[in-house]
Amino acid sequence: SSDFVTKKIIFAIKPKNRWGLSFGLQPFSTINYSFYADKTIQGTGSTTSTYYEGTGGLNKVYVANAYQITKGLSVGLEAAHIFGQQNQTETISSSFSGSEITTNRNSYLNGNSLKLGVQYNKDISKKMNVALGGTVSNKTTLKANYDLLVKDGTTTIEEKEQFKSNFFTMPLIYTTGLAFTYKKKYTWAVDYNYQDWASSHYTGLNYQLVNSNRISTGFEIKNFKNYINTRVEKSYFQLGAFYNNSYLKINNNKIKDYGITAGAGLHSFKNGLGIQAAIEYGERGTINSNLIKEKYTQITLTILYRDFWFKQKRLYD
Which SS3 state, helix, strand or coil, does residue 159 take? Predict the structure, then answer.
């Protein structure tokens, strides 16, 4: 199967010498599944064919500010609003009534979140620079308006609408990263992400949410060009790898995700346009305990535009 989605739209400006501002819209989570499975009929011991489908997801609109306190030390704060819709359908082929029993669950979610970040970089020699950073995101409670509709053929069995102020809680999220740059051209970086899902004590039939962690590393080569007496980035090439213990544990099997990535970018100096392309190959899941394992390939294309706004003209020297 294949999917095409808009990953993100981001704008960034620099109002002052030490102040950076960014705002944009990007996906926060997605639901996209469709499969058949046998469902046990309670009290009979027999099964019937059942179709499951889910679509939708959450988006995040945000505003982020960063400020350089001293040379090499910067702090940042991101305020975001999370919103979206989730649609889940279960269709049971009933041999007793001769019609299908359909259950539709629609949820409309929203909530606010904050993220605090800090970064420090220092030249440890004439050719080597080291950078260290970290972020922390607060627990985010999502409110929900959701409705349930159960029908046997065209007959409505149950229909209700509800509002919950604490429908779901996103956990505390911690990240940290370390990077070494040589001659401002070669960079090696490693990142670590930790999410405290276990504190939510969320469980279901044969599954539970557990703490997750992800480690990723990569190498980058940059090429520069002198343009109007300034050394600017012309192109780059990147290679990376990642390993992720996800927040899902099903039938005592923790779902893992790992893969490799490659990317490249090219920037134009005359019109401010840039283009970036990346490819990711990975494997997720397991075939133990009759679970599902998938292999996936994701291709990403990014278009950049950079320009100077509100600049003053120099009429006389």
Answer: strand
Residue 94 to residue 96: CA distance in whole angstroms: 5
CA distance 313 to 317: 11
Number of H helices, E strands in the chain: 0, 17
CB hemisphere CA count around 251 (13 angstroms): 8
Dihedral, CA of residue 303, residue 262, residue 58 and residue 168, to nearest 10: -150
Cα–Cα distance measured from residue 280 to residue 297, given in angstroms and rounded to the nearest whole number: 6
**18 pLDDT more than 80:** yes
d(CA 80, CA 96): 49
What sign does the dihedral 269-272-273-279 (CA atoms) show?
A: positive
Q: How far apart are CA 255 and CA 237, in angstroms?
A: 31
| Rounded Cα gap, residues 255 and 151, in angstroms | 34
Check residue 228 and give its pLDDT: 67
- Distances in whole angstroms, Cα of residue 6 to Cα of each of 9, 243, 248, 263, 272: 8, 25, 26, 18, 22
Q: Are 89 and 103 in contact (CB under 8 A)?
A: yes
Q: CA 117 to CA 281: how far, in whole Å?
A: 29
Q: Which of 108, 112, 83 is nearest to 25 (CA)?
A: 83
pLDDT at 116: 97
Angle value at C-alpha 240, between 237 and 244, nearest 5 degrees: 155
Distance, CA of 287 to CA of 244 (rounded, Å)? 17
What is the average per-residue pLDDT within 84-101? 81
Tell me how far the alpha carbon of residue 213 is from its chain's centroid: 14
Contact 298, 263 (CB under 8 A): no
The upper half-sphere exposure of residue 29, i.e. CA atoms within 13 Å in the direction of its Cβ, equals 12
